[in-house]
Amino acid sequence: MKQILRYHPLLATLHWVLAVLIIAELMLGFFGLAATPNSDPRKIGILRVHMIGGVLILALMVLRFVVRMRTSRPADATTGYALLDRIADLPLRLLPAGLDDGSDRVCDRDYRRARRDCVWFTPLSADAEFASLYKTLPA
Q: How many Å is the maximal CA-CA distance in the chain?
């Protein structure tokens, strides 16, 4: 059996493209969405770009998973300690779960107010419904 020394080039490319896209999405969310007041009409456009980027990341992650399942991979790297080998990868697997900060909702800046001040966004929201809900937010 031929020993594989590197991951498939498509898998490596998808890895780095996804890394750049995820960092860009985090920056857009922090510097674009969080910094823009809810009363600013430009926030809708920023949110659309952010949502499209998220869907693109999801699609590329699915493609990456399919490529990963269909291609050969090199042997796992080891530390020399069996227990450390088992737990070393755990933080990296759990980190993405902590990245969701509830940014799929836009609330009044005073987060202690009632939930009625929040608008929840879904990719299936119609533009007219979205605009009418967005206008109900206090300035």
A: 66
Residue range(s) defining the domain that contains residue 53: 9-102
**92 occurs within a structural domain:** yes
Who contacts 23 (Cβ-Cβ below 8 Å, separation ≥6)? none
Secondary element (H or E) of residue 119: strand 119-120
List pLDDT tens digits, range 1-41.
Answer: 688 889 999 999 999 999 999 999 999 988 888 888 888 88
Task: Give the relative orientation of helices 42-70 and 9-27 as an angle to the nearest 10 degrees.
Answer: 160
Q: Is residue 53 a part of any domain in this protein?
A: yes
Specify if 46 maps to a domain: yes
